[in-house]
Amino acid sequence: MLSQIRSRSVLPGFGLTLGFTVLYLSLIVLIPLSATFLKAAQLGWEGIWQAISSPRVLASYRLTFGASLFAATVNLVFGLLVAWVLVRYRFPGRRLVDALVDLPFALPTAVAGIALTALYAPNGWLGALLVPLGVKVAFTPLGIVVALIFIGLPFVVRTVQPVLEDAEAELEEAAASLGAGRLTTFRRVILPTIWPALLTGFTLAFARALGEYGSVIFIAGNLPFVSEITPLLIITKLEQYDYAGATAIAASMLTLSFLLLLPINLLQAWSRRRTGGV
Amino acid sequence: MLVAIVLGLLVLLGGIGAALAADRTLLNVSYDPTRELYVDFNAAFAKHWKDQTGETVTINQSHGGSGKQARAVIDGLAADVVTFALAYDVDALRVNGGLIPAGWISRLPNNSAPYTSTIVLLVRKGNPKGIHDWDDVVKPGVSVITPNPKTSGGARWNYLAAWEFAKRKYGGDDKAREFVTKLYRNVPVLDSGARGSTTTFVQRGIGDVFLSWENEAYLAQQELGPDQFEIVYPSLSVLAEASVTVVDRVVDRRKTRDLAEAYLQYLYTPEGQDIAGRHFYRPRDPAALAKYADTFKPIELFTVDEAFGGWDKAQATHFADGGIFDQIYAAGR
């Protein structure tokens, strides 16, 4: 069996590389993740259920998943816009803008949180303008969304950008010469090409937002049932030396994330096959 | 996650171990607001130890949220001594790791708390909302800043001080619960730690009154000028005893017990007490307290032991999951 795989493979050394891959993945990802589930298992089914289904935890799931989904959707639209401008137009300072996109990656998220809070607090530059209009951002769920949009933006831009660069402008010209309007060209020619990449970017931004703690904690206000994210509840449990309870919530979040991300990945694989792979 | 934490700690400990090979060092793991205090105290103690024994010691300090620091020590941070915000966090070392013996609290005088603090009300200059006591804090329209008692040691003192005030004035736990519920209705932001709340009140300009450690209030006033904030002393507050102890498991392994014990005892000497007073912590020594009489206004103080039957009980009743603090928020949904 193994020799069969080996003989079919173009590159030599499959057995060794697979072994290394599995070992490395186990050490870095699988063992820590299963430790989470094992630690949670100490509570027993009833204890786990109690820990993960209290009204306060449920409220935090709604907020965390809702805000993450919303922020990822905003990033989907505006990330595409940014990528489009960067690829299709030449303007002074383009390279600088291109580099700026990566900043949310490099910035410690706590710094981002503090900066955003200072900006959107009622006495901050933007907050002072928004509060008279009745828009409160800092210390509300809206603030959480703002922070999540900030940290998620690079994912969409960086996954869509290379695909756009590869897409040939001749295709669009051909579409135009056959009588397609701009909207039709976008819908029938461009969107199918970049759709899988867009979905990937969306997934990454969504996944990143789910686990985000540092930037949100400063701007959220952290009121129970209102602006308390799930990662904060996990920290709260830890502060009470309740390791098992904390990991139970963490494990439930992992499971929920997996259940949400799996269909998106399947959809992505399906659309990739349909468009002939990009 | 656990494995990653363990691996990380091993690397960290290895690094510390290598650095420690030569002279003896001491690690004091403490909480946030004592940063400035121990910078001063460590220098004084190192000099004192050198004069006494001729040995040069390096004292390292680590600061963070009190509960977070306790967890780091339980998970393996090699603290020779811990100086936390409340006895409950120190006792966690005994309960969760067996790092210290039962009865640790009576190893040093005054419940092993060489200095104390209390909770005061910090208001904006001119006291525009007219806040003079706890009663004014729960009035409708007054915005109150305090951290989350689930994640902050200081916030638990705030909560208990308000509770005991109402219990004494209006009689009974039901009234106290009503009072505290009203108080938290007035809280627009629950930060996770005391320093975060200080920032919210001082830098972001949110809130009319900040329930603060006495020393944090003075520190905020000192850093930002007395023309911005006023400190209001309520009629009753809590005697916040910040407990310290030697971590037996660590000092026995690192052979630093003599040094660590001398370090903590030095906190009780006139010099140690004076340093505490200078950093706005109330000294236990009457002479040192008298010297800073201008700072520490006399105020009626109660202890958690006499009012709540100790920290374990207070924690279980009020702050544990499903406790009164949780119920307050669950009911107000």
Domain count of chain A, please report it: 1
Structural class assignment of chain B: alpha/beta
**Proportion of strand residues of chain B:** 5-15%
Helix content of chain B: 40-55%
CATH uppermost class of chain A: Mainly Alpha
In N-to-C order, the SSE pattern of chain A is HHHHHHHHHHHHHH
Fourth-tier CATH superfamily name of chain A: MetI-like
For the record, the CATH class of the largest domain in chain B is Alpha Beta
How would you describe this protein?
Chain A is mainly alpha-helical. Helices cover 79% and strands 0% of the residues of chain A. Chain A has a single domain, classed as MetI-like (MetI-like fold, Orthogonal Bundle), CATH 1.10.3720. The radius of gyration of chain A is 23 Å and the shape is globular. The mean pLDDT of chain A is 89. Chain B is an alpha/beta fold. In chain B, helix 2 links the parallel strand 1 and strand 2. In chain B, helix 2 runs antiparallel to helix 13 and helix 7 crosses helix 8. Chains A and B meet through helix 2, helix 13 and helix 14 of A and helix 1, helix 3, helix 4 and helix 17 of B. Chain A: This is Sulfate transport system permease protein CysT. Chain A: Belongs to the binding-protein-dependent transport system permease family. CysTW subfamily.
